[in-house]
Specification:
- The protein is built from 16 helices and four strands.
- By secondary structure, the chain is mainly α.
- Among the domains are: about 80 residues, no CATH class; about 60 residues, no CATH class; about 35 residues, no CATH class.
- A two-stranded antiparallel sheet has the order 1-2.
- A hairpin with a 2-residue loop joins strand 3 and strand 4.
- Helix 10 packs across helix 11.
- The longest helix is centred in the middle third of the chain and has 61 residues.
- GO terms for molecular function: DNA binding; zinc ion binding.
- Keywords: Coiled coil, DNA-binding, Metal-binding, Zinc, Zinc-finger.
- This is THAP-type domain-containing protein.
Amino acid sequence: MGRSCYFNCIDAKRLYGFPKDPEERMAWCNIVGADFARVRPNTKLCEKHFDPKYLGVKNLKRYLVPPAPQQNENNQTLPKNDEIQSLPKNEEIQSLPKNEEIQSLPKIKDPQHKENNQPHPKNEEIQSLQSNTSFIEDEDTNNFPNMPLKTCGSIIPLKKRKIAESKNLTSCCNCDCHKKPDTSPQKLEKGKLQTEAGSLEKLISEHKKQMEIAGKDYEKLTLQNTQLNAEIESHKENIEELSKIIFGLSTDIESKAPKFARMICGKTNRYSTDQLDIAQSIHHVSPKCYRFMKEDLSFHLPSPSTLLKLRPPSSIETGIENNAEVHQKEVAASFNKEEQQCEMIFGEMDCQPSLECDISHDIKIEL
């Protein structure tokens, strides 16, 4: 069975193997009529046993069960396994009569053969049958020879049918096969109303879908709005807290003023060079004032010991020396002779103008 069909078909052009899956192979065997036990991996079937729509380019399409086996030339299906087993073997076949013996046997006549094989009618009988069909009118025979008009099992001649159509009758019989469509204005209006109703229903369904989508969008937007409001409130609180800490600076201040303010209000223990210069200049001018600012006012200033470690006092350049010299010259010019003598005797008389109150440049603060 290597390159031949399972049923030994003649003129087998294409051969196709059975599927490897045992369940599919069993299904093929049941449909084609093959013995599952005799089917091997090499067994094949020819294209006569398959429908062309199941065939692919080279192989049979997978998961498609072939149809029943095709019939032979004599319109006889191939024998199945039970029939093949019931056939006589080679020894019994030899005992069967040959063709010559079969021809020599007497022929058996069928008793029904005479009844079925009646003689054909002659021309005279045909003419007599045609004379009996004289009830059909000439117009009917001319238009439809030997074919009477039929409507639902009843025979109606052509004249009656034309008369019925001329009278605008809806039907020639009891059935609804010849009824004309009702084209009354009421029915047309009903049809229009039905079409409009259908279109309105479609529009309503579309609007409902749009409303559902809009509702979902509204819910999302409300959630976003609540979240944004919460963020705005938190930002407001932060702004209020920062407004207590942050203060505005004027445009006329020097560049060292904001650095000093940051040093006072800061929390870090690391100071820049500018901040250390300011702190050392304040401590050099008045250590009491520096101690008052650090201890009583609790300004964030470096301690005096740290200042001495970082820079010795000899390297400090105070920013008030020039102003002090100018002020001393002005005070000396404004002294009288007596005051100048007192100044010579008392070296601290030059501090008198700074200790006394001058209305021109000093401001009184009433407590």
